Structure formats: C-alpha cells, structure tokens
Amino acid sequence: MIITGDQVNRDLEEKCQVLVIGSGAGGGAIAAELAEAGVDVIILEEGPYHTSKDFSANPAKMIPMLYRDAGTSVIMGSPSIIFSEGRCVGGSTVINGGMCWRTPEKVIKRWQLEFGLDEITPRVMEPFYEKVEKIISVEPQHPNSLSKGEMLFHKANRELDYLIRRNHRNQKNCTGEGLCVFGCPTDRKRSVLVTYIPKALAAGARLYADCKAEKLITKNGRAVGAKASVLNRETAKRKHMMTIHADLVIVACGAIQTPAFLLGSKVGNSFKQVGKNFLCHPNTKVVGMFEEEVKYWAGVHQGHQVHEFLDEGILFALGGVPPALVSLSFPCFGQKSLELMEQWNHMIVGGMLIDDTTCGRVIRLPWGAPLAFYQIDNVEFERMLRGTALLSELFFVAGAKKVLLPFFHLQELNSIDEIKKIYEYKIQKAEVELLTVHAFGTTRMAANPSRGVVNQWGEVHDCSRLFVVDGGIIPTSLGVNPQETIMALATRSGQYILENKQKFLS
C-alpha cells in the first residue's frame, strides 16, 4: 500500500513492528528483507512517489522533481563541492548511474583492523552480495548499448595498456538511452523503486511518501517510534502530523540527512561521533573536444570504468551528464557559451572519482537542516592534478583536438604536449570545480563506541532498537561506487534482526 501526501487529510497515528525511515538503497533493501519474512513494516519517504511514466529527458522538470534542493546542495569548503542526491521513493538509486561494485577486500580488511569489525569478512559478505545482485540484476553492460564516444575511450585505454573494465550495473537489457540521472523511462535500470519497494509492498509493507520524519520517539533509552510531517507536495510544507509507534526503528536517510535527524532527536551522540568522519569521494571532470561527431551521450551512462589507478586512489569513467548541466559548469556566458554548446555532439565528458584521504563533518542547523563541510587535503589535490593529466592524455590519444579543464585559470589544453601546464600553472585548491554524488562515514560502524555511532550490525551504540543502514555507516572511503555495499550491509542487518526477533520485535 502506498499513501501519498495528497491522500492524507488529517493527522495520523500508526503502529507497526518496524519503522524504516528512508526508501533508498539501504532503506528499501532492509524493508523488503523484513517484510518478506512476515514483519509488519512502515516505510517513510520524505520525497514524492513517481514512476517511469513520469520521467522525461527534460532537466527543468526532472531535477526539481527527483533531486533534493533541485540538485544544488553544497558541501562547504575551499573549493565548495556540489552534492546531488535523490529525494523521491527509491532515493538516489532512481537518479544514479547504476554502478554496482562489491566492497574491495582490502577495504574490508581495513575495517577489521581499524574498527574491530571482525565479523565482516569477504566470505561473510558473499551471500549478501549475491542476493543483492540477483534482486537488482547486476551484470556487465552489454556492448550494444555503448556509444561511439565510449568505444573511442575504450580504444585509447587499450592503446595505453590501462586496465579498463566493462561496468557492472543494476540493469536488465539496458538500451543505452543515457537518461539515468532523470530516472529510467523504461524501468530497465533496476533501481530500488522497481525492485525492493515492490517486493516490500507485495509482502504487506505500507509506504508513506511526502512524509518527513522530524524526531525520534524514545523511552528509557529505547527507540519506540517517530514523529513526522505529512508534506504538501507542491510547497514541501507541513499539512498534517503523523505519529508512528514501532518496536524497532531503522534510519536510512543518507549520510547527510541521518546525522541531522539523530542530532535533532538527541540520540546516538553520547561519544560525540554523529556527523563526524564525513567522506564524499570528491569528483571532477575533463571534457574532450573532437573534430568528428562522437555523440557520447547516445549510449549508456558509464559503460566502462578505468581501474588502472585504483591503488593510487583515482577511478575514471565517462559520465552521462546532460548538456544543460554541462553548460552550467563551463566558465563562459552568452554567445561564447552558445558557441561552445553547439559543439555538444563533438564532446566527451569524462570524470574521476578521488579516494578520500581526509574527512569532513555534518552539523545540524538551528532550524533542523544539515550542513556539510569538507576541505580537500594536499594528497587529494595532487590526485586531482594527476587524474586531470591522465584523463587529458586519454582524450588526446582518443583523437581529441583539445580538452577543457576543471580549473578557473587554466581552462583548456590544445595538445598532449601542453599537459605539463597543469603542473606549471601552480593551480590552487580553490580553483578546482568539484562535485560528488557519494556520502558516507557520518554514523560509521565501529566495535568501540568512542570511534563510531553504530556496531557492526548497524545498531546505534547508545540507543537500543535503533539501527542505521545508509551510507553513513561505511567507516572508510571505498574508492568505488557505494550502492552495492550499502544494500549488502542493509540486507545483513535485516537478517540479523530476523535472527534476533525476540530481542528486537517483542
């Protein structure tokens, strides 16, 4: 059963065994896991409920519809980082590129050594990865869906003998329409919206869309429910209140929203860890300009990833960024901007993901909203310069006539011989254009509560019957897309709850 805000005309009071706050990668996965085992589940989602019938290629319509703050959220720092996340049923899985990679084994080993997460091992995680991959149809991208730009990029990597891998994505018979960031119009991307949410609903779960959790209800150090606002979809303002009583509460609002919710509820922060240790995989881009038409957009979003430099903390891929968003990032206006965008069919937009070597924090503002801070360090900055140089080389080897750079003063290179300018210009950190779609670490797992907010099952250390299962519990940088890690950990937490029903659901 799905109830949307416009269907609610009075204050509500509900009761369930498990309340799941958030319907994205973590919330959707654990809601389905519990509901299919016969648990009475209510899912709260702040954003609206939409289906593929509502999705289109129009950014002016889709971005305000599916993204928080219309995609304009900012992580404060020098430079600031544009952060985009979904605000809809299915969360960011509706608007991401669908990349699915298992947690690198060396990362899990680090969790064991540094955070005492002894029971999380590659072998233990294997069945959870397999279950997730089956449900969301993870498989290598089919070559028929790749654009000409992707194939040029692949060829350049092979010429340079770089390790390039066909992307693993949650998709079924993807036709490469390249509209992932606006919601898949054919449901071929197997987001939470079309996988876990239908499974949970079919098993009897109730989902309230347009419903923002405001404060956790606790009693004697135990979570017993939450207060929420039923929102007017048009204004996003409260129209009614809702109270949900539950045996157990699971928070899955994302690594930026969850800390604000916990801080506002005055739970989980006995050891002053909530909101700290914020990680975000800073990203930047390079654009290759070609004489011939390459139409890199006429194919799947990220058909390949370059894993040659993962040990250096750098990952490359082509990004399916729509022209309207690319044009906003260029440092030109008016006629010059028009002339540049008229060459759209001759562009390939590539990006790099940088592995975090520092961390930031998330605070709660007086009116309840979160604010994130992150200052890139010297190691990350050097990785960005090296990544920009390497990606520029790739584009020139692929046949580009010039590349456009993500720096304020040094904006383009016209030959492979000019790549050295990236180091000669003494570029400053504040000059780099940065963005990200990943956030984690703010409620990280740790066996010792002085080092994290939740234990290795996702249960909050200082509040019983309260779990967190979003990206915030990931304790370190991953270096790869976090979607599958979040889903696998949430599935594992769901199984743990089911194995301990008497403890949590009575």
Mean pLDDT: 95
- What amount of the residues lies in strands? 15-25%
Which sheet architecture does the biggest sheet show? 8 strands, mixed
Overall number of structural domains = 2
Number of helices: 13
Roughly how much helix do the residues carry, as a percent range?
25-40%
Beta strands, count: 22
In the predicted model, the low-confidence regions spanning at least 5 consecutive residues are: none
Radius of gyration: 22 Å
- Structural class comes to alpha/beta
Report the CATH architecture of the largest domain: 3-Layer(bba) Sandwich
Shape: globular
| CATH-assigned fold name of the largest domain | FAD/NAD(P)-binding domain
**Could you give the distance between the termini?**
24 Å
* CATH superfamily membership of the largest domain: FAD/NAD(P)-binding domain
Q: For the record, what CATH class of the largest domain applies?
A: Alpha Beta
Describe the structure in your own words.
It is a single chain. By secondary structure, this protein is of the alpha/beta class. The protein folds into two domains: 2-67 and 90-137 and 181-270 and 441-504, FAD/NAD(P)-binding domain, CATH 3.50.50; 140-170 and 281-355 and 377-431, Cholesterol Oxidase, domain 2, CATH 3.30.410. It is 26% helix and 22% strand. It has helices at 25-35, 59-66, 105-115, 122-136, 148-159, 196-202, 257-265, 323-329, 334-341, 378-398, 421-424, 483-499, 501-504; strands at 2-3, 12-21, 41-44, 73-75, 81-83, 138-140, 164-166, 168-170, 206-208, 211-219, 222-231, 238-251, 283-289, 304-306, 314-318, 347-354, 361-364, 370-373, 402-404, 412-413, 434-436, 466-468. 53% of the residues are buried. The model has no long low-confidence stretch (mean pLDDT 95).
